[in-house]
Amino acid sequence: MTNAFYSQFAANAVKSSVLSVEILRDALLPNLLGDDSSGILYWAGKDLARQFPVASNADLVTFFEQAGWGHLEVTSESNDLLTYELNGEPVARRNAAIKQPDYMLETGFLAEQAAQRFNCVSEAKITATKRLKIQMAVTVDHKQALTNHDPETPIEIIRPQVDVDDEPEPNA
Predict the structure, then answer these.
(1) Which of 50, 108, 109, 143 is the most buried (most CB within 10 A)?
(2) Which residues are within 8 A (CB) of 79 and not within 5 positions of it... i.e. 6 or more apart?
(3) CATH no. for residue 85?
(4) What digits encode the pLDDT tens for the residues 120-136?
(5) What contacts 49, CB < 8 A, 6 or more positions away?
(6) What CA–CA distance (Å, rounded) separates 100 from 61?
(7) Model-level pTM?
């Protein structure tokens, strides 16, 4: 179901309205969830990562773009610490329009993707928030293996096809 769901919408040339997503995310959910909004969104991000596991950093970057969360960059990776930067038009737009936008959904998603990848407990936090970028760090605790862990098969990421006829011709 998850791979079919992803494929149905990621391959759709008609993109959903940014307004509809932002109304749900930044107007409705904070009002419904109140003071618990950040914590619930973090755990919701973890749940989404279990539903939409990805196989690689390249797939993770593509998924973030397709989800409308922004452009994700892996800034460093070590055995126990992964650092990311989230930037791009969605981040700039949300930061300009909302006094204190919440990025805990993305943070939870990154934490769970690391947990699935390394088969151990992982936690993420936002380390810096700037107008045009968000920095996040995921700590991986290799001493705490996940129990009863049966990882899902990664989704097949759909990448836009580039038509060779649309590419500019080189100058002769």
Answers:
(1) 109
(2) 140, 142
(3) 3.30.1380.20
(4) 999 999 999 998 999 99
(5) 108, 109, 110, 111, 112, 113, 116
(6) 24
(7) 0.85
